[in-house]
Amino acid sequence: MKFEKSFYIRNFNEHVRENLFIEKPHGHNFYLILLVTKGSGTHTIDFLEYKVFPGAMFIVSPGQIHQWRLSNDVDGCILFFTKEFFLHDFDTEKLTRFPFFNSTFSSPMFQLNSKEKNQILAKYELIHEEYQSRSLSYQEMIRIYLNAMFIQLSRVYLTKNEKGQKFSYDLLQLNRYEALVDKYFKLHRPISCYSKKMNITDRQLSYLCKKTVGKTPSEIMMNRIMLEAKRLIVHSVLSISAISEELNYNDSSYFIRLFKKITKQTPEQFRNEQYSRY
Predict the structure, then answer these.
(1) 124-136 residue pLDDT tens
(2) Model pTM score
(3) What is the mean pLDDT of residues 178-201?
(4) d(Cα 184, Cα 166) in Å, to the nearest integer?
(5) Per-residue pLDDT tens for 18-44?
(6) Which pairing describes strands 31-38 and 75-81: parallel, antiparallel, or unpaired?
(7) Which of 33, 63, 262, 53 is nearest to 150 (CA)?
(8) Which of 83-87, 155-159, 233-237, 274-278 bottoms out in mean pLDDT, i.e. has the lowest?
């Protein structure tokens, strides 16, 4: 079957057999939704390792670096979609209203029980049938079923991850801040630059960040800088000095001290540790 660039759905076992590169760290410019129904292994997402087991639900967002180590009998249902594909029939903030999409602090994995798993598998099947049939308005139907799936997953997610998920307005504001940080973190470090863009005060920005994820705006900024540093250290051929410059630290020795203070390792130690896992 020929798959479109904006949407992809497949049996996971078939996907794994035809895409052996997934054992190496890689990223995507689309969302990945996977329900595991069989097998075991590990799934590393942005340097955090999660167990793979029947009932494990994984949601990977664009830009995240991930890597699989899977048993030969692994199976499940996987689908990809681009932001543009989903938002074709919805407003621009629709995705961020779902708790697993609304923050970089949202967990990319949670467990479904047998009933929940069957409900999500039923949605996968409906989506797969629409994709295979290519009947009138099939893409619109896929988006409707995706939306229904995300509503069901949100109900499950919120029962398992209650922290910071009750304040929808604050979460939307947090998402706006994180989106701005993601865009400008290499250029602008003062928090006032972001609060001005959001038309709120520094104090209001600090309050909503603490209220939703228990971190200050500066901590969220530094988390993003360190995540990018780790990605570059492991997944690029740049020297530590070049990475320091890429992240707008003119003094590489300061960058090395900062990285060690936060991660308890030097950049070289972190790189060697990660390489030893591949």
Answers:
(1) 999 999 999 999 9
(2) 0.81
(3) 92
(4) 28
(5) 876 667 788 888 999 999 999 999 999
(6) antiparallel
(7) 33
(8) 274-278
Q: Which CATH number do you get for residue 49?
A: 2.60.120.280
Domain with 106, as residue range(s), is 7-160
Q: DSSP secondary-structure letter at 136? A: T
Q: Which of 167, 161, 262, 252 is nearest to 221 (CA)?
A: 262
Task: Walk across the sheet containing 7-11 and list its strands.
Answer: 7-11, 75-81, 31-38, 56-60, 109-111
> How many other CB atoms sit within 10 Å of the CB of residue 251?
11
Query: Does residue 1 form part of some domain?
Result: no
Cα separation of the two ends of the chain? 32
Number of structural domains (the chain) is 2
Do the beta carbons of residue 137 and residue 126 sit within 8 Å?
A: no
Q: Please tell me whether residues 19 and 148 are part of one structural domain.
A: yes
Q: Quickly tell me which residue has 């629709």 as its tokens.
A: 94
